[in-house]
Task: structure prediction
Amino acid sequence: MTTRIVELRRGILKKNDELAAGLRARFHAAGVLVLNLVSSPGTGKTALLERTLRELLARGFRAAALVGDLATDNDARRLAASGAPVRQINTHGICHLDAEMIGKHLEGWDSLGAVGAMPSSRIAAAMNGSPAESAAAVATGAHLAALDFLFIENVGNLVCPSSYDLGEGIRVALLSVTEGEDKPLKYPTLFNSADAAVITKIDIAGPCGFDRELALRNMNEIRPGIRIFETSAKTGAGMEEWLEYLSSECTGRR
Amino acid sequence: MHELSIAASIVEAVTETAAAYAGARVIAVRLRVGALAAVVEDSLQFCWSVTTEGTPLAGAALAVRKMPVVIHCAACGVDAEVGGVQSFRCPLCGQPAADLRQGRELEIESIEIEEPEGEALVASGEKDRR
Result:
């Protein structure tokens, strides 16, 4: 018997990474800005998204959402009240969303037709690929081209979602004032991998004894220079700045 | 929490690679795991033993090499290792550094296989030269 070392140098999550790269290319071709919202359970991802969808639609943007939970379609029903197309992803025990789940739940999303008529220029952009890619775009991606934003609300979990690329353009980490200012230090991977952060429920920051300066400092220790928004989905405080950011990122990526 | 799906991904990749070496047995799998990879080694080892049980990979060791976080400091023009995952500052000048050069790895570096002599020669294409 002989032993030998076989070099692999292969990412363990290579399959997910490849699927995510495919999704990213598809989102880019469709001209849709995709945001992946990550936080612990109860931070207020759904509340922020409910208000965000409502306000974006009121401003003439076209937005849709995929929402992940282990069980129930409660969040999808809450979000759908905004009028945006929403689809629930039930992971049945899995603690995060992965690129395969996203791809699967984008298939044949016919209700996206309800978003409105698609400008012909966007159809052309979506179909600007090989014949095979174009066929795929007609079947699924073309609906994406009718959107400005696709929000993906991840499963509430501060650990696992950080490892799984979903093909998003922007990863947003949420932290609520009820959670403690040291969350970024305790869960550095998630906050370090985020492109932007939102501090939620700021209307109750006072009663919670929330130390704003400390929270901002901790976030900057883990992700230097991260863009931070402070919002209350209940009162609407800080929503304007958040919506302006979304709007400028959306325009900037076209 | 996702160590089980990571273990399953390792099994898939290793099985695929090992299939090219007929008659070989995998005795070790070497990983590179960054400090920011959000993987708990004890949990991964446990999931590895459970996932490989009753398969040809049963008994193969999982060797984990931990990769510390390395940032690039533009001001100092160096790549530097930071202690831990609590602060991302250049250890030389103390400035915050968001440019990460190492620490997110989650990869299979290599596998160690044991194979019968004859099969080894076939696999490496040296049989004809005998």
Q: What stands out?
A: Confidence is low (pLDDT under 50) at residues 110-142 of chain A.
